Amino acid sequence: MFKIKDLKYKNILNIKYLVIPEHKVNCIVGQSGSGKTTLMRMLNKLISPDAGTILFEGNDLSNINSVELRRKVVMLPQTPILFDGSIRENLQIGLRFAEKNEETEAVMLEVLKLVHLNKSLDENADKLSGGEKQRLSLGRVILLNPDVFLLDEPSSALDEDTEQLIIKAVVEYSKKNNKTVIMVTHSKKVASTFADNIIEIKSGQVMEE
Ligand SMILES: Nc1ncnc2c1ncn2[C@@H]1O[C@H](COP(=O)(O)OP(=O)(O)O)[C@@H](O)[C@H]1O
Ligand SMILES: [Mg+2]
Question: pTM of this prediction?
Answer without folding.
Answer: 0.96
